[in-house]
Amino acid sequence: MERTAPFSDERCRHVLPPKCAAAASFLRRAPPSPSFDSWSPPPSSKTPICRSELGALLVATVAGGSSGTNYGQARYDRVFSFGDSLTDTGNSAILPATAGGPFTNPPYGETHFKRPNGRASDGRLVIDFIVESLRLPQPEPYLAGRTADDFRHGVNFAVGGATALDMAFLQSKGITSFVPVFLSNQTTWFNGVLQLLVSPVPTQQ
Predict the structure, then answer these.
(1) Among 20-24, 65-69, 143-147, 154-158, the least confident range
(2) What percent of the chain clears pLDDT 70, i.e. is strictly above it?
(3) Within the chain, what is the greatest distance between any pair of CA atoms?
(4) Alpha helices of 67-147 — where are they, by DSSP H?
(5) C-alpha dist (Å) from residue 76 to 23, 73, 130, 137
(6) pLDDT for 51-63, tens place per residue?
(7) Is-contact 180 17, C-beta < 8 A?
(8) Which of the pair, 23 or 92, is modelled with greater confidence?
């Protein structure tokens, strides 16, 4: 197992496990997922697939009041996204354990963005369509932001390859996680962002 220095970013102090050599091998083999712009159902298979990876979890926060004149129609002002590569829009391209992976090179991103953009797809993901339909800005990838202003219009905490179960549990079952990020990390980041957003803005003297 290859050992490297842990991610030193203070925001990721809970993501300390070293990168595994197997992770790089796994990522090199991973082809881009088809985007929802050109998706077609896969052929049926009788082989069961067991995954501990996260799916997608989106939280749209509601602003005061309602939009338009329709009673009960909420107006949303930002989206917080959690999960793995199904919703990751750039964190994996920044996290040292996965930065420089194949998703940063063609053919990833070729159908819609015309360039690799950190998504593990050749085009857009479900979250892209959700924020578009809500008429909201794209949430900032968590690892790309630092200030409250960066996160004011929403945050994407998803990291490709992240798992719902934490490392201690996986290790107790003899499983090595490809990516050292878990749902508990993402919720910790979320709590930190909430504190940042409600903190008073310092006034200049």
Answers:
(1) 20-24
(2) 61
(3) 68
(4) 126-133
(5) 37, 10, 12, 11
(6) 445 555 666 665 4
(7) yes
(8) 92
The H-or-E segment that residue 135 falls in is: none
27 close to 46: Cβ distance less than 8 angstroms: no
Please tell me which residue, 135 or 199, carries the higher pLDDT value.
135
Q: Go through the chain and tell me how many residues it has.
A: 205
23/2 Cα distance (integer angstroms): 10
- CB-side exposure of 85: number of CA atoms within 13 Å? 27
**Which residues contact residue 184 at a Cβ distance below 8 angstroms, ignoring those fewer than 6 apart?**
14, 166
Phi, psi of 65 (to 5 degrees): 85, -170
CA atoms of 30 and 129, how far apart (whole Å): 24
Q: Which pair of structure tokens corresponds to residue 31?
A: 């082809």
Q: How far apart are CA 62 and CA 64, in angstroms?
A: 7
SS3 category, 10: helix
Q: CA–CA separation, 155 vs 148, rounded Å? A: 11
Sequence-distant (6+) residues with CB within 8 A of 166 are: 182, 183, 184
Is the pTM above the cut of 0.85? no
pLDDT score for 104 = 87
Taking alpha carbons only, the member of 85, 22, 28 closest to residue 51 is: 85
Prior bond of 107 cis (ω within 30°): yes
The answer to whether the peptide bond before residue 48 is cis (omega within 30 degrees of 0) is no
pLDDT tens sequence across 150-194: 999 999 999 999 999 999 999 999 998 889 999 999 999 999 999
